[in-house]
Amino acid sequence: xxxxxxxxxxxxxxxxxxxxxxxxxxxxxxxxxxxxxxxxxxxxxxxxxxxxxxxxxxxxxxxxxxxxxxxxxxxxxxxxxxxxxxxxxxxxxxxxxxxxxxxxxxxxxxxxx
Length: 113
Fold this sequence. Notes:
alpha/beta; Rossmann fold; globular
């Protein structure tokens, strides 16, 4: 029986944060893809033929009305879960870590459906 690992995309313009999170998710068995802008994320989803479980995206990128990332992701595949994180708040990095730890322990959580 071939079980594919959960496929995620990390989207943030901060390459250090993306690298740290990609390494941590990767060590926990996830198939990790990186993007540093909304358009790059959309291209990655298309490249993966819309088969993505979760997208973690920085709040500023998600809020960019020109890119309309969330709307366009849902047009490609309405089943992709999107977690928008605000790293610029004082607790932003801890919010990333909370979701990281939660998802790593419970990869098919109903919270992400």
